[in-house]
Amino acid sequence: MAFRGRYEYSLDTKGRLNIPAKFRDILVHEFNSELVITTALGNILDCYPLTKWIEIEEKLNALPSSRVELKSFKRLYISGAVECSLDKQGRVLLPPTLRSWAGLDQKDNSVVIAGMIDKLEIFSQKRWVEEEAGIAKTPEEIAKTYDILGEYGLSI
């Protein structure tokens, strides 16, 4: 099981998002269509199968609350979490609070769904363009990125 690929969709007028068939098959067959979608850093949404989310919650709960940065992150991540399921058409309803966090509204309802192996990331189209602009572009930035990957044993 791995979520791979990037897809562009639009929210419907009720705030429902079609999940790509490739991802939907994994969610239905391996995870009973049960999801958790939450607010993430960078004004995007993270979408986990429920069983994976429970593992994340356990790890977050074990972090020390004495560190202000960790406490703030836990507050954002856990308080923003919404359990949901795919409907029969393979859509998920994004509540208004999640849509607002991610900059998804009726005027600009374009969404990018990025597979990130164990989760999905949901971006507004505008936010995705900003994300792409931040990817290493100069030869120096590219070399630095490859150096960091090499530190972790990845030779790409």
Number of helices: 6
Structural class based on helices, strands and sheet pairing: alpha+beta
Indicate the low-confidence ranges by residue numbers: none
This entry's quaternary arrangement is single chain
What is the helix fraction of residues, given as a range? 40-55%
Overall shape: it is: globular
- The count of domains is 1
CATH class category name: Alpha Beta
The CATH topology name reads Chemotaxis protein chec
Walk me through the structure:
The mean pLDDT is 92. The protein contains six helices and eight strands. The chain has 156 residues and is an alpha+beta fold. The chain has a single domain, classed as Transcriptional regulator MraZ domain (Chemotaxis protein chec), CATH 3.40.1550. Helix content is 41%, strand content 25%. The strands form two sheets. It has a six-stranded antiparallel β-sheet with strand order 1-7-8-4-3-5. A two-stranded antiparallel ribbon has the order 2-6.
Present the secondary structure layout.
Blueprint (H helix, E strand, L loop, with lengths): L5 E5 L5 E3 L2 H11 L2 E7 L3 E6 H13 L5 H12 L2 E4 L5 E3 L2 H6 L8 E6 L4 E5 H9 L5 H13 L5
Antiparallel strand pairs: 1-7, 2-6, 3-4, 3-5, 4-8, 7-8
